[in-house]
Amino acid sequence: MKDKLRTLGKEMYGAMMTGISYMIPVVISGAIIMALPNFWTGGGAADAKTGLAYYMYTWGDQLFKMMYYILAMFVAFGLAGRPALTSGLVVGLFAANGESGFLGAVVGGIIAGYVTKYTVKHLKLPPVMSSAKSILFIPIITSFIMFIAMQFAVDPACSFLMKLIYNFGVWVEGIGYKPLLLAVFGACFCFGMGGPFCYGMLPLALIYINAGDNVTAAATMVSATSGCLGTAIAVMLFKKKFTQNEKANVPGLFAGWICQITEFQIPFFMADLKTFTPAYILAGATGGFLVGLLGVTTPAWHGGMFTALMASSLPKIVLCILGQAAVVVLWVWLFKKDLPKEEQLEENTEIN
C-alpha cells in the first residue's frame, strides 16, 4: 500500500512539474512584454489606450493570462498524454476565469489526467467507430466529466483554499511578519535547486504572486538566482577550497545567476553537503527577507537578471541579490576547508 501511494505521489508530482515547465516560458514572456513599455511611459502603458506601449502591455497581459490554460493542459498531459489536452483545457477555462487559479489548474489537471487515462483504457467501441475514439469520443466524454467536476467540486473547493491561503498571507503582512514568510520561501527556492523543496513551496508562493503580490515575485526571483552568484564569487576568491573541475563550472554558475537556473549549484552541493546545505538555506532566507524588508517588486517570478532589470527599484534589488550572495561567500570562507596539500599540488600540476 505504501509503495502504491509513493508511486502515485511521484506520478502526480511529475505531472505538476511537466505543467510548470511548459508554463514558465509563458509567464516570463508575458510578464516581460507587459513590463517593457513601462520603461518609456513611466509606468503608464496600461492607461495609454493607444500606441505601441499600450499594445505591448495588452499583448503581454493576454499572454500572461494564458498560463492557467497551459498549466492545466500539460499537468493532464503529463499523466495521460495528448488525449488529455482537451479535458485539461476545460480545467484551464475555470482556473483562468474563476478564482481557483494556480491551485485549481494543478488539482483539476491531475483529475483530468486520471479521468482521461481511465477513459482511454476502459472505453470499448465497435471496430467501425474505433478510428474516432481519440478525436471524438474521448475528448467529448472527458470534457463533459471535467465540466461537471470543475463546476461543482474542484473550482469551489480550490477557490476557498486559495482565499484562505491568501488571507493568511495578508494577515501575516498586516502584523509585520511578511519578510519572515518571504524568508521561508527564499530558503526553499535557493536550497531546493529544482527539487521537491523548491517546487513543493512554489504553488503556495504562486497563490500570492497570481493575486498581484509582486514582492513575493521578487523574493522568488532573487532567492532562486543569487545562490549561483555567491558560489561563483566564492570559487574565484577561495581557490584553495575547490577542485579544478569545480573552478571550470564558474561560467555555468554565472549563467545560472543570469538565467535563474539553480541546478548549477548542484555539483557544489553534492560535493560538500555540510557546507552548502546551511549556506544555501541561510542565503535564500536572507534574500527573501531583504526583499520583504525593502518592499522591492518585479513583474514576474522567473527570468533571472532580465526580470531584475525591471524591478521597482534597481538599487534595492541589487542590494538584495548581493546580500544573499554575500551569505554564501561568507559561509564558504568560514566553514569550507581548504583542499589537502596533496590535492592542491595535483591540481597545480594538472594546470601546468
Textual characterization of the structure:
The chain contains 18 helices and no strands. It is mainly alpha-helical. Helix 1 (2-35) packs antiparallel against helix 3 and helix 1 packs antiparallel against helix 4 (67-80). The model has no long low-confidence stretch (mean pLDDT 89). The protein starts with a helix and ends with a helix. It is globular, with a radius of gyration of 23 Å. It has helices at 2-35, 38-41, 51-65, 67-80, 85-97, 101-122, 133-174, 178-192, 196-210, 214-223, 226-237, 244-248, 250-259, 266-271, 273-294, 304-308, 314-335, 341-351. It folds into two domains: 2-162, no CATH class; 179-351, no CATH class.
Give Rg in angstroms: 23 Å
Shape, per Cα inertia axes: globular
Number of beta strands = 0
Query: What does the average pLDDT come to?
Result: 89
Total domain count: 2
Number of helices: 18
Q: Provide the β-strand percentage band.
A: under 5%
Q: Biggest sheet, open or closed, and with what strands and sense?
A: none
As residue ranges, the low-confidence spans are none
Order of helices and strands: HHHHHHHHHHHHHHHHHH
Q: Specify the structural class.
A: mainly alpha
First-residue to last-residue Cα separation? 58 Å
Helix content: over 70%
